[in-house]
Design the sequence.
């Protein structure tokens, strides 16, 4: 069965620290990849997405992610986090060409200390 | 501004009651989805729709039902709520061929 695994459940960082959140998926075919963020009390928002082309994608708020096909990974990075990045982060996958069903990872809670 | 709306935001209800969670979008998206999310867990797809009069069950079995009589409206109904239904329910939509999913703010349901 298709699945998405996020390695870190809870991450605590100080401001200006670098961030990398791991995401691996299990699906042998072509996939579309997403990172969503959910700030406290708010709805899920799209951070960035990968469909094709350059495997290094840049999203909003200084986030980027790299798709490594051989490793089935799509890790999220940010060079210097801010207190306002405190949120829950979800990696999601949808196999290309299907109904568009998103398969989510279990989420990573990021807490940034000022 | 185009958006996706879920009501109510919070709901506490007694066991055995029938409830309907509302989801409406103003973007004309043809595909709509319902996800269930328990605290600290991933989102699980419970229902989806390709368009009007189309509904399918998702990957996670659910006792809820959905309907899609109008493009913009995708309500979810529990005929007899139970404490095991306590969860957060998220509605989402997208347009075929598009790459963006838009999520609602969710309904946090507590069944006592």
Sequence:
């Amino acid at each position: 069965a298709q699945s998405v695994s996020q390695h870190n459940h809870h991450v605590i960082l100080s401001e200006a620290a670098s961030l990398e959140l791991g995401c691996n998926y299990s699906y042998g075919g072509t996939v579309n990849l997403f990172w969503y963020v959910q700030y406290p009390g708010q709805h899920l928002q799209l951070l960035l997405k990968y469909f094709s082309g350059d495997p290094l994608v840049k999203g909003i708020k200084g986030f980027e992610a790299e798709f490594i096909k051989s490793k089935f990974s799509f890790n999220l990075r940010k060079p210097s986090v801010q207190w306002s990045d405190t949120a829950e982060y979800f990696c999601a996958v949808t196999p290309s060409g299907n109904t568009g069903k998103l398969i989510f990872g279990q989420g990573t809670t990021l807490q940034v200390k000022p | 501004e185009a958006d996706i709306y879920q009501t109510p935001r919070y709901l506490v209800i007694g066991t055995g009651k029938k409830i309907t969670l509302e989801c409406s979008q103003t973007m004309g998206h043809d595909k709509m989805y319902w996800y269930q999310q328990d605290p600290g867990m991933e989102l699980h797809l419970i229902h989806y729709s390709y368009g009007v009069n189309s509904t399918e069950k998702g990957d996670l079995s659910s006792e809820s039902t959905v309907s899609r009589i109008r493009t913009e409206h995708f309500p979810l109904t529990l005929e007899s709520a139970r404490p095991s239904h306590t969860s957060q329910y998220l509605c989402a939509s997208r347009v075929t061929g598009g790459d963006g999913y838009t999520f609602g703010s969710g309904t946090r349901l507590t069944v006592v």
The mean pLDDT of chain A is 91. Chain A touches chain B at residues 4, 9, 32, 34, 36, 42-46, 49, 51, 90, 99-107, 109 (CB under 8 Å). DSSP finds no helices and twelve strands in chain A. The CA atoms of residues 28 and 105 of chain A lie 17 Å apart.
